[in-house]
Write a structure and sequence with these properties.
Number of helices: 5
Shape: flat
Structural class: alpha+beta
Strand order of the largest sheet: 1-6-5
Number of strands: 6
C-alpha cells in the first residue's frame, strides 16, 4: 500500500506545496549549453502522534492503530554539480553547534536563570534565495509532470545541493545578528 500512496500525485503535491509557495524554481526551455543538475524524489514514512487529527492523502492509520504520514521531497543530485560552475569552493562549509559547546554553556545558563531556546526551521533549505550570480539549472525528477519537457532554473536553495547548508547558515546568521544575537567565538553554530 505504501508504494501506491507514494506514487500518487496527491502526496507529491501536498509535500511540494512549500516549494511552490517559496517559488523555488522557474521553467526553462533550454539550458544554454550547460549540463543540468539531476534531481529525484526521496520518500519517507513518519510516525505521527496518537492524538494527531490531521487528515488528507498523506495521513493514514495503520491496522495496528499507529498514525503515519507519507512524505515525498524533491532533492537535487548535488554530486553532479561542478565546482566553479554550479558552486564556489567557499560555499561548501556551514558550521554546526558542537555538543561540547552545548555542555559548557547549559550549566552557566541554568545557574543564571536564563531562558534556553532551540530552533528548528521547517524546510529550512528552501528559505534562502540563491545569489544572482549563481545560476543552477536542474532537470525535473523522473515521474514529475515536467519530466523530459523542461529544465528549471533554481531561484532558492534546495536539499541536496552542495551549497545548501552554506546558504541556510548565511540566512539564519543574518537574521540572528539583526535581532542582536551574538555568536560565541569558540563555536560559530551557537548564538
Amino acid at each position: 500500500e505504501a508504494n501506491k500512496i507514494f506514487r500518487s500525485d496527491s502526496v507529491r503535491v501536498h509535500d511540494n506545496k512549500a516549494a511552490t509557495q517559496q517559488r523555488v524554481e522557474e521553467p526553462l526551455s533550454a539550458a544554454a549549453g550547460r549540463k543540468p543538475v539531476g534531481s529525484k524524489y526521496v520518500f519517507d514514512i513518519k510516525l505521527r502522534s496518537p492524538t494527531c487529527t490531521l487528515t488528507g492523502p498523506c495521513y493514514k492509520t495503520l491496522p495496528d492503530g499507529r498514525k503515519v504520514r507519507y512524505k515525498a521531497r524533491m532533492v537535487a543530485k548535488g554530486f553532479s554539480q561542478k565546482q566553479g560552475i554550479d558552486f564556489k569552493m567557499d560555499e561548501k562549509y556551514a558550521p554546526t553547534p558542537q555538543i561540547a559547546s552545548i555542555r559548557m554553556i547549559l550549566p552557566h545558563v541554568f545557574s543564571k536563570g536564563w531562558e534556553v531556546r532551540q530552533l528548528d526551521a521547517k524546510q529550512a533549505f528552501l528559505i534562502p534565495p540563491l545569489p544572482d550570480d549563481e545560476q543552477i539549472i536542474m532537470a525535473p525528477p523522473p515521474g514529475s509532470k515536467f519530466d523530459g519537457k523542461y529544465l528549471v532554473r533554481l531561484l532558492r536553495s534546495l536539499y541536496g545541493l552542495v551549497q545548501a547548508a552554506h546558504h541556510w547558515h548565511r540566512e539564519i546568521k543574518g537574521t540572528l545578528l539583526k535581532h542582536e544575537f551574538t555568536c560565541i567565538d569558540a563555536d560559530q553554530g551557537v548564538y
